[in-house]
Amino acid sequence: MCIDIIIADPHPIMREALANFLGSRSDFFIKSCVGNGNDTLAALDKHKSQILVMDLSLTNCNSIDILQSITKNNLAVRTVLFTNGEANEILRSLDLGVCGVVSRDKSKFELAECIISVANGEHFLDRELTQKAMAVLLGRRKNSKNNINLLTPKEMLVARAVLEGLPNKKIASKLFIQEGTVKIHLHKIYQKLNCPGRMSLQRRLQEFGII
After folding, report:
1. At a CB cut-off of 8 Å and minimum separation 6, what does 149 contact?
2. The whole model's pTM is what?
3. Which CATH architecture has domain 150-207?
């Protein structure tokens, strides 16, 4: 099996080195090698490759936006991060469907192993980067647990309704309040629990057994 790959890295020397090494293998085929986010999106649209090898420091369109676009457009590509990015960014990337993570400090052979594993439907996570990310996650959970106590009784009712999957209009009807009031409550809940949106809030509540 020959694995089609797109390489997205903002550093020309690294990009060339990756292309030369991965392209020299009979089991890999480099479809495109790009240096910014906009070119990455264009390459994904054009080549329909199996694997995207990407650094987290892309410009013009950042790596998180690219991952969101992949999810939104239901692209079949599986993403491998080859990066020394911050733990917060790695956590968010994993949340957006990244399948493999390898530190730039590791050998090119470990990256190749990761690509093969991900192409076979598996997940491959760099041990040291994963440990850093988990430390951040545990810290977040501890803070969230404390912050949950900051929710008012009405905010807790709204949060429970969100976990049930109810839209704002139905939450308003259920709690006998205005839809605009629901939005205000949600905004405060997101701030208190450090959640970017509905799905994140649902996961947070499930993690801590709020329901």
Report:
1. none
2. 0.66
3. Orthogonal Bundle (1.10)
- Helix axes 153-163 and 168-175, enclosed angle (nearest 10): 130
Order of all β-strands in the sheet with 51-54: 28-34, 3-8, 51-54, 78-83, 100-103, 124-125
Q: How many residues does the chain have?
A: 211
What residue ranges of the chain are covered by domains with CATH 3.40.50.2300?
A: 3-133
Fold of 3-133: Rossmann fold (3.40.50)
Distance between CA atoms of 112 and 53, rounded to whole angstroms?
10
What is the pLDDT tens value at each position of the chain, 211 positions in all? 799 999 999 999 999 999 999 999 999 999 999 999 999 999 999 998 999 999 999 989 999 899 999 988 999 999 999 988 777 788 778 888 899 999 998 999 999 999 999 999 999 988 777 666 666 655 655 555 556 678 888 988 998 888 888 889 999 999 999 999 999 999 998 888 878 888 778 877 776 666 5
One-character DSSP codes across 58-95 = --SS-HHHHHHHHHHTT---EEEEEE---HHHHHHHHH
E strand spans, the chain: 3-8, 28-34, 51-54, 78-83, 100-103, 124-125
Tell the burial category of 131 from Cβ atoms under 10 Å away from its Cβ (0-12, 13-18, 19+).
Answer: exposed
Q: Where in the chain is the domain with CATH 1.10.10.10?
A: 150-207
